[in-house]
């Protein structure tokens, strides 16, 4: 009986979007499976193709007015900050995903009004995994946020942390996919 009560309490403590089944998946990357080299960085000693993977989301919460995507590596040896690999904001509410390769530095494959924030590589656009040689595999958190606003007013030179703060302040819910990569 106590387990049943705890399970019910857990369901009701989740944000509405998580309880309703807001999900994120990818035909290119599988949760818990090693990220293919095609999607890894090309630089810093890594030799991947640095192509952003396709992402698809389903069942966003009612009231969603836009989406944001972040890709973060909390295992990066940065003194606790992790590493930001991709941040995209102001994606229209009618979207259900991004195609493989949409994360170009100039954003030309993104819908009008979408904005990419500078990553920890110092550039905009997708920056694939590239953990230090010999580190245990890092875990890459791909997260799509359903936002209660149609537009986040983030300066062009904003840091990933500022964008993350603003995304979380406007979030109705989020869906996440986590995949490892090591070398």
Q: What can you see in these coordinates?
A:
The protein is α+β, with helices and mostly antiparallel strands. It has a single domain (15-181), classed as PEBP-like (Phosphatidylethanolamine-binding Protein). The chain is built from three helices and ten strands; from the N terminus they run H-H-E-E-E-E-E-E-E-E-E-H-E. The strands form three sheets. It has a five-stranded antiparallel sheet with strand order 8-6-5-9-10.
Task: Count the domains.
Answer: 1
Strand content: 25-35%
Main β-sheet: number of strands, strand sense, barrel status?
5 strands, antiparallel
Structural class assignment = alpha+beta
Features:
single chain, 183 residues, alpha+beta, Phosphatidylethanolamine-binding Protein, 5-stranded antiparallel sheet, 3-stranded antiparallel sheet, 3 helices, 10 strands, disordered N terminus
Short description:
This protein is of the alpha+beta class. It contains three helices and ten strands.
Write the layout of secondary structure elements.
Layout (H helix, E strand, L loop, with lengths): L1 H12 L2 H5 L2 E3 L16 E2 L2 E2 L7 E4 L7 E8 L9 E10 L4 E2 L16 E2 L21 E10 L12 H11 E11 L2
């Amino acid at each position: 009986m106590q387990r049943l009560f705890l399970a019910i309490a857990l369901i009701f403590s989740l944000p509405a979007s998580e309880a309703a089944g807001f999900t994120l998946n990818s035909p290119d990357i599988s949760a818990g499976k090693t990220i293919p080299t095609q999607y890894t960085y090309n630089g810093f000693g890594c030799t991947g193709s640095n192509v952003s993977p396709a992402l698809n989301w389903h069942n966003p919460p009612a009231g969603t007015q836009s989406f944001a995507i972040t890709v973060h590596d909390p295992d990066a040896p940065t003194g606790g900050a992790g590493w930001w690999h991709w941040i995209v904001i102001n994606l229209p509410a009618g979207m259900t995903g991004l195609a493989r390769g949409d994360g170009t530095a100039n954003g030309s494959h993104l819908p009008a009004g979408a904005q990419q924030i500078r990553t920890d590589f110092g550039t905009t656009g997708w920056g694939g995994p590239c953990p230090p040689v010999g580190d245990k595999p890092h875990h890459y958190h791909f997260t799509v946020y359903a936002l209660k606003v149609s537009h986040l007013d983030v300066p062009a030179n904003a840091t990933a942390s500022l964008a993350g703060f603003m995304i979380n302040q406007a979030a109705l819910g989020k869906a996440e996919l986590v995949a490892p990569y090591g070398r």
